[in-house]
Amino acid sequence: MTKTIAEINEKIRKGQAVVVTAEEVIDIVEKKGVEKTAQEVDVVTTGTFGPMCSSGAYFNLGHSKPKIKVGGGRAYLNDVPVYTGFAAVDIFLGATAIPDDDPRNRIHPGPFNYGGGHVIEELVAGKDVRLAITAYGTDCYPRKRLETWIRLEDMNEAVLFNIRNAYQNYNVAVNLSDRTLYTYMGVLKPNMGNANYSTAGQLSPLFNDPYYKTIGIGTKIFLGGGIGYVAWHGTQHNPSVPRSDKGVPRAGAGTLAVIGDLKQMEPAWLVGTSMLGYGCTLTVGIGVPIPILSEEILRYTAVKDEDIFATIVDYSEAYPQRSPDILREVSYGELKGGRITIQGQEVPTASLSSYPKAVEIANTLKEWIQKGEFLLTEPVAPLPGVEAGITFKPLQERPIEE
Amino acid sequence: MTVAKRVVLHFPPRLVDEPIIYRLVKDHNLVLNILKASVTPKEEGLLVLELSGAQKDYDKGIRYLTEAGVRIQSLGQDVIRNEARCTHCGACVVICPTGALALEPTTRLVDFYPDKCTACELCVLACPPRAMEVHF
Ligand code: SF4
Ligand code: SF4
To answer: Which candidate, B65, B15, B68, places its Cα nearest to that of B42?
Structure first.
């Protein structure tokens, strides 16, 4: 049995496509078997909703009268600094940027109440934000200062562009030390007081297409409540990690760079987030449709939390010191049970990624496709796969001698 | 009618060495559960208690404390969840010491039980989207 994306799109247009979520497909395959399900199901939808720090947005502000050249100057949105190294009125706002006067970790753990992710959320919610620019002034762009309110709808372009999202698998974080740690994996209580993980597991996009056979550059996706596209593979994309016999990576592997028009997104799916003692970020909602082109692809989408393993890493020593030590491997099935055993000790587990919201994303995407509003795209180029032989390089420092 | 209420008691320095809590329990037939205590001799003392018993005993107990010079602050409903901001991630379930924030295993939604909340505020800064809010 094989299908093409064009055939599936034809069914979507006629309102006849059979679409199920990556959670629903598990039971269907168990009941009906791979062969029958592959014939019946056309699309499996996935979803994930978690903090993703390598997110950001670029904006074209429009020209003031008289004109100002922000390129090479400084600019802020609600006191959060933006990157200005482009032309006259293009800026880039990163999710983890924080105001210059934020106390940071001066009193540890710093609260990190407001940053780039929060500005993105407020802009998407239609709120006014304060734009402040200082520039050096030129003959063609004479103005040196500008302060104004600005909204998303006032801007020419507002584009979400996340250079690394949707990590295929991730560490489970614990703390072996005797003091509380404040990390990007949340608050880690001393002596393995908790084990934190961050994934939608069986619903997560790249767990359902572990070898990137359907997801590629140009794949149309649910992004932040609107429509987006896979722009490239994400930074740190590393397909070469060890995999289970079903092809599921056993450690952090593939990633996606995604892009989409911010003006059609929703604040419920782009949430400004504060990690105590760590920094600000953005919680991003992503959903990817997987066309069931063959039995092999269906088999991948039937992956269960019990089949997905992650490594438990100590964030007091091994992680910050870049040591490869892991405490053990654990399945997401076990993690979701609320308690796991590490070195004979029972440890409560917590997630940073919202499973109920991932379900909601997969269901929303399913509805869009069922209603014929969302057609699938053919990738224009594949993401690098295992055969690309990518190695994940650490930074080798070479001292600079004066 | 029985009640169970959470209160914060502020003891001025002159009362720190007095057997106030002993009298509160003994003379007023109340059950008490100490949730947090910081009492240093000769300085102000602070005690967070859950008091339970018959309503009339509770009222008498509170009157006794007030007359003795203890300042009382109610703790009920101090921390509430902004439902619109909660993403049901689940980060708080290992932070909350009382089980007031707990995962519902089938839906994987995080339920908030205000009656179990002691307003310790540990969840407030630990919640990534800052859905837990302190209300005075
Ligand atoms: S940590 Fe905050 S957002 Fe996450 S479940 Fe708890 S209250 Fe909700
Ligand atoms: S204030 Fe304390 S007891 Fe109440 S929900 Fe938060 S962590 Fe739990």
So the answer is: B15
Q: DSSP for A204-259?
A: SGGGSSTT-SS-EET-EEEETTEEEEEEEEPTT--TTS-B-TTS-BSSS---EEEE
Statement to judge: residues A323 and A243 lie in one domain = yes
pTM flag (> 0.80): yes
On whether ipTM exceeds 0.90, the answer is: yes
Cα–Cα distance measured from residue A262 to residue B20, given in angstroms and rounded to the nearest whole number:
61
Residues A112 and A168 in one domain: no
Region label for A201, one of left (φ > 0), alpha (ψ between -120 and 50) or beta (otherwise) = left
Catalytic residue among A31, A101, A107, A140: A140
Q: Give per-residue pLDDT as tens, A203-212.
A: 999 999 999 9
Residues A34, A132 within the same domain: no
Instruction: Tell me if B129 and A271 make a contact (CB, 8 A cut-off).
Output: yes
Does residue A398 lie in a domain region? Answer: no
Tell me if B91 CB under 6 Å of ligand 1.
yes
Distance A281 CA to ligand 1 centre (A): 15
Domain coverage including residue B121: 78-134
**Residue A140 appears among annotated catalytic residues:** yes
Residue A3 touches partner B, C-beta closer than 8 Å? no
